[in-house]
Amino acid sequence: MAEAHQAVAFQFTVGPDGIDMQLCHEALRQIYLSGKHSWKKRFIRFKNGVMTGVYPGSPSGFLVVVVSYMSGTKYAQLDPSLGLITKLGTHIPISPYMSEDSQRVVGGVLVGTGLWVTIIFIMRNALKCLLSWHGWMYNRHGSVSWGTRLWILFVKLFSGRKPMLYSFQSSLPRLPVPPVKDTCRRYLESARPLMDDEQYVRMEGLAKEFEKNLGPRLQWYLKLKSWWASNYVSDWWEEYIYLRGRGPIMVNSNYYAMDFLYVFPSHIQAARAGNVIHAIMLYRRKLDRAQIKPLMLLNTIPMCSSQYERMFNTSRVPGVDTDTIQHVDESKHIAVFNKGRFFKVWVFYDGRLLLPREIEQQMERILADKSEPQEGEEHLAALTAGERTPWANARETYFRSGKNKQSLDAIEKAAFFVTLDDSEQKYETDNPVKSLDSYAKSLLHGKCYDRWFDKSFNLIVFKNGTMGLNAEHAWADAPIIGHLWEQVLCIDPLELGYTEEGHCNGEPHPNLPGPQRLQWDIPAECQSTIQSSLKLAQALADDVDSHIYPFKDFGKGLIKKCRTSPDAFIQIALQLAHFRDKGKFCLTYEASMTRLFREGRTETVRSCTMETCTFVRSMIRDETREERMRLLKEASEKHQNMYREAMIGKGIDRHLFCLYVISKYLGVDSPFLHEVSDVCYGQKKKVEEESMSSQCLDFIKPIGPVSRTQIKPSPELKRNVHGDSPLSLLFISGKQGNDTNV
After folding, report:
1. Which of 315, 336, 498, 674 is 20 to 30 A (C-alpha) from 660?
2. Per-residue pLDDT reduced to its tens digit, 293-317
3. pLDDT > 50? residue 695
4. How far apart are CA 508 and CA 505, in angstroms?
5. Is 483 among the catalytic positions?
């Protein structure tokens, strides 16, 4: 009753003398501060929207153009409106209301504004044309041609000053649709190492038939979409790759990020949570105000920032056939899980963000709470770890009204989800492999019921003060979360810091309201569904074979000194390791980004090339060291060129994916696209014509980010690896020993 009494802003009683009204001044004060905070945020968003809308122009530029124009016309004794006011006067009675001087001022402002808008339009389109050129990517590392330098100069000239996060969105070019002929050629080239001569000849015939007949028809529809939509891939990619998948997103789609391995800022769980939650909310405030600088290659070339929009206040909502992404503009609380119980924690009070010590105070209250989980509450989050359709049905049946809906809304509309884990995880120097394996598996899936996998990201803070993230994949790709995590790891120990005892700096708040325990009413039927999802999720988690080997012998610096791409080096090494273990090559997925284009996400780099296979065979055969080095250089350059092509819209898989989707919308069959799927899978699958989801996923799975090639070493290889250097996983070859060194 005390909480209910305090929650009422006013009370009144009716008596003989009339109505006696008693106002709760503290409650009214909080209402005022909340409204003030909300309107301030709206104003900032409006201002940022205006600034972004006119970029690369600015209000100061507007004043310069208008004043310069009016000064110039006055000096030249010209009508600043160039006759505009006179023409308007023949239709609108202006003269009785405006003097001649006023007419000149208004006319000058109008014409100056038009001139300013024209300049912005020219600069924006000039920048878009400049950013459509990607020749700069083909310069040798460490050298820049004069043509590229001149291009960079023009890009800087048209880019404006002090860009905000979304300033370049309207200046970014659209992702181009590559010609069908080029995509078919690149596909055949990528599939050649995986086929014998007979298979390749057959696939070549199917590709030529597709290129001549059905391909141009599908391409026409795809080009039409590319002219109309901001990006011809991203919306279909999000829907069919992520949201229509009915399997568990835990492990299959969600990914994790680790804490510092060698630095332990604080061993107090609540204190670490306090600093990190505060740091994350500071990042959100910068994001809301667009104060984060856009990521720019070479400090000049902007990349798309659209994926940042749904980082916070976002949750994936299950559906029977397809999921949806739910995003709210404002959220002033977080959801916290600890020992089977859910809490709603407000991170704002008195119209301001809680300080780290105050958030630590809230976490301490949760950890000190000895109450038991309600019936069905402890394993509730397992619904998000199991298959999507049972979760969707349970949500529709048991979470549509009452306290269940209120509590579920508190989780789904929270800024993010926090787990105060009761286990301890960290990197142990005396047992590095086992400790990192346990650490990674805990962040990836935990106990399968202590993470809300549908949230945009989960912050996990362990009992000993280490932490990590688990992120949902549909709303954005890993570099977006990576940017947040880098900022947080920097702010936590360096800017916020801790006391000597390990607590957050500052003092607890004497009147801070405590966390709110979420209430549930979960019937037996729903509990049965929860247990089924938990059982399936646990089986999936047990099937995850994670082995992480810390390697300190050398890093990318040494590889660069050898004038070789570190990325290409690792990809080639993986092909060598797989061939030595399995005796064959396999289709391999590596993701590259396409954020040089508006709303770009990823493209596939098929890193198993003919050049790589030739180098791998040279490592097996008795070749000279010089010959192996030459072949390694060729394979590395080939991989780098493929990566560049993927970045500039000349990839293979996203184009084929979109052509396949259109073929299903049109109801036409493509033997070539089916064969592409068969080559990727290594087996034939029947496609059900009545299910768009299953049709697309049959094709998409082999090339999507949730189905990367898993290199599982044989038992013999594992035994060899555990006794040797961690890099043995890449170069182990039984008896060959030192001959494998490159």
Report:
1. 315
2. 999 998 899 999 999 999 999 999 9
3. no
4. 10
5. no
Of 480, 500, 440, whose CA–CA distance to 261 is shortest?
A: 440
pLDDT given at position 705: 31
Angle (nearest 5°) at CA 256 between 254 and 259: 165
| Sole residue written with tokens 């004038």 | 563
Residue at 414: amino acid letter: A
In the predicted model, what is the mean pLDDT of residues 667-676? 89
For residue 62, give both structure tokens: 């507007």
Strands (E) located in 281-340: 296-297, 301-302, 314-317, 324-327, 333-338
Give CB contacts under 8 A, 24+ apart, made by 557-563.
563/141
Q: Residue 269: how many CA atoms within 13 Å on its side-chain side?
A: 22
Helices (H), 621-652: 625-647
Catalytic residue among 379, 473, 639, 674: 473
d(CA 345, CA 359): 9
Specify the CATH number of the domain 180-240+556-713: 3.30.559.10
Q: In angstroms, how far apart are the furthest CA atoms of the chain?
A: 107
DSSP 8-state secondary structure symbol assigned to residue 327: E
User: What's CA 109's distance to the chain center, in Å?
Assistant: 44
Specify the CATH superfamily of domain 252-542.
Choline/Carnitine o-acyltransferase, domain 2 (3.30.559.70)
CA distance 381 to 564: 46
User: Cα-flanking dihedrals φ and ψ of residue 477, to 5°?
Assistant: -100, 170
The average pLDDT across 652-677 equals 90
- The domain spans of the chain are 2-53, 56-136+144-162, 180-240+556-713, 252-542
